[in-house]
Amino acid sequence: MKTAKDNKIALVTGGGSGIGLAIAQKFVHEGIFTIIIGRDEKKLQHAKEKLGELCEFISCDLTDLKAIPVMVKKIVDQYGKIDVLVNNAGINMKKEFLDVTDEDFQKILQTNVSAVFSLSREVVKFMVEKNVGSIINISSMASQYGIPKVIAYTASKSAIEGMTKAMAVELSPKGIRINCIAPGFIATDMSAAALNNDPERKQKVMSRTPMGALGKPADIGDAALFLASEGSKYITGVVLPVDGGNSVGF
């Protein structure tokens, strides 16, 4: 009987809902044993029930940086390896520039940048032992062009894209590929609520998206699966927009 150790092992942060859940669904469908990580245990439990026996969950607050090495070691002790890491967890804050406090700014950076760095570093310690691995970071259209009222989020996602390139140059010779997906406007519960409450913004999004529709979480899942697979074995250091052409639209 096959065990989890016979499968590829993937970690997906923020895997309990939205884009993270869609990525986990694609991985599980392809036989990748997927550990979803998040803060909301009830949401994670519900996601695990949906995903089945090739999924496990860990409730962890990734902003507690001291908890990350302990969690990663526990995973490796139990499953023997980590083949894929998807750094999907992130938070946003919509505020006028002048209203953003230092605490607001640091809170976004702690979750979206510092936690990604710490988790990646700890996972890479074990990936280098086997000279293989794929890390997929999740960026945003906010890093492609200026979007008002999301200064901290924009800074954090720009940092993620820079980290992706720096990590790729340093780690690819060790067999570890680092890539990044920059989702466009994706139809999640959160984005739907934001756009439906702001008709002007929704019209602007649609008018500059050549494909004329919002993306689906599964579209990001497909891209992540590709970057986690052997099909992308000669790809590293890229930032892949999955956006219906939004980043080149006018």
TrEMBL record:
GO terms for molecular function: oxidoreductase activity. Keywords: Oxidoreductase. SUPFAM superfamilies: NAD(P)-binding Rossmann-fold domains. Belongs to the short-chain dehydrogenases/reductases (SDR) family. Transmembrane segments: none annotated. PANTHER family: 3-OXOACYL-[ACYL-CARRIER-PROTEIN] REDUCTASE FABG, SHORT-CHAIN DEHYDROGENASES/REDUCTASES FAMILY MEMBER. Its EC number is 1.-.-.-. It is an enzyme of class 1 (oxidoreductase). The keyword Oxidoreductase applies. Pfam families: adh_short_C2. This is SDR family oxidoreductase. InterPro entries: NAD(P)-bd_dom_sf, Sc_DH/Rdtase_CS, SDR_fam.
